[in-house]
Amino acid sequence: MTDLDPRQHMLSTRRHLWDVSGAAVSRPVTFAEEAAEHRESLADLQSAERVAISGTEVLVSAALLKEFAARLRHDLAHGALDQEAEQLAQVAASLAERLYKAGGLSD
After folding, report:
1. Contact 2, 30 (CB under 8 A)
2. What is the spatial distance between Cα 88 and Cα 65, in angstroms, rounded to a whole number?
3. CA gyration radius, the chain
């Protein structure tokens, strides 16, 4: 099992796998892996099922994503995170922008 390094890995996500003996194992997920997974999910929204949420929920979610991206970039600028975190900041900022537009606002 790989040790979690908060400079390089998500704190909230782990990959759960099986080793060659069939035993369950988990490993940390890098920022780049998480960003790539979310980019792929967001790229094919035409085939995705739509859900309805309130305008307020959209705007609050967008604001939280915007703050998350800003905090990632702050920590990157101060050397507290691996440079791969920029990829995750880009995904968060892009999704925040999409949500603001869907909510009738642009930032």
Report:
1. no
2. 11
3. 16
- Write the CA distances from 49 to 14, 46, 52, integer angstroms: 25, 8, 10
Concatenated DSSP letters of 26-92 = EEEEEHHHHHHHHHHHHHTGGGSPP----HHHHHHHHHHHHHHHHHHHHHHHTTSS-TTHHHHHHHH
Model confidence pTM above 0.90: no
What is the pLDDT, as a whole number, of residue 87? Answer: 97
Residue segments in the chain with a per-residue pLDDT below the cut of 70: 1-2, 46-48, 107
Adjacent-strand bridge partners of 27: 15
